[in-house]
């Protein structure tokens, strides 16, 4: 993935599980280790961690909304680093707010395992020729396809 640009003033590592029984591969500890390795490889050591234990598809996401508000009030651009798009969101109604922050240069989105970086600056993005919504949809669909079907 591309390196952070010099406008980054704040880095957030985001981990999320939908319940405390999430499997080891998707544990917050495992997600954090992956995100830390990613930013360490870029020479970055100062960051903040948001650990969410809340569903991304149901209910009110209080901690997620608090994180978004913190990003809005932060001076400069915040790099939000997470393992996969489905750790960030699964609801399409949250995409416009994130895209607005991206277009304003307030946020960069780094999905480590999806090899995806979305920024205001097209020169720094890993994607080409696609808008924000289709890329987020791609990440969401891939996340759902890899998830085993629920047994009823």
Show unreliable segments.
142-152
Biggest beta sheet attributes: 5 strands, mixed
Q: Determine the number of helices (DSSP H or I, runs of at least 4 residues).
A: 5
First-residue to last-residue Cα separation: 40 Å
CATH class: Alpha Beta
Query: Secondary-structure element sequence?
Result: EHEHEHHEEH
CATH topology: Rossmann fold
User: Portion of residues in helices?
Assistant: 25-40%
- β-strand number: 5
Q: What fraction strand?
A: 15-25%
CATH superfamily: Resolvase, N-terminal catalytic domain
Q: Major sheet: order of its strands?
A: 2-1-3-4-5
Quaternary state of this entry equals single chain
Structural class assignment: alpha/beta
In total, the number of domains comes to 1
Which architecture would the CATH scheme give at its second level?
3-Layer(aba) Sandwich
Shape: globular
Mean pLDDT: 77
Describe what you observe in this structure.
This protein has 152 residues and is an alpha/beta fold. The protein has one domain: Rossmann fold. The chain is built from 5 helices and 5 strands. It has helices spanning 28-41, 62-73, 85-88, 95-103, 132-146, and strands at residues 8-17, 48-53, 77-82, 107-111, 116-118. It has a 5-stranded mixed β-sheet, with helices on both faces. Strand 1, helix 1 and strand 2 (48-53) form a beta-alpha-beta unit. The radius of gyration is 15 Å and the shape is globular. Mean pLDDT is 77; it is low at 142-152.
């Amino acid at each position: 993935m591309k390196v952070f640009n010099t406008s980054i003033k704040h880095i957030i590592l985001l981990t999320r599980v939908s319940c405390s029984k999430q499997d080891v591969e998707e544990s917050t500890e495992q997600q954090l280790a992956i995100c830390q390795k990613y930013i360490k490889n870029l020479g970055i050591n100062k960051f903040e961690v948001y650990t969410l234990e809340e569903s991304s598809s149901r209910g009110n996401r209080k901690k997620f909304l608090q994180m978004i508000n913190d990003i809005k009030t932060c001076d400069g651009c915040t790099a939000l680093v997470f393992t996969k798009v489905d750790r960030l969101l699964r609801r399409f109604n949250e995409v416009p707010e994130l895209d607005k922050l991206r277009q304003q240069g307030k946020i960069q989105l780094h999905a480590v395992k999806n090899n995806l970086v979305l920024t205001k600056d097209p020169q720094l993005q890993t994607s080409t020729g696609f808008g924000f919504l289709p890329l987020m949809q791609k990440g969401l669909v891939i996340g759902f396809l890899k998830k085993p079907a629920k047994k009823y």
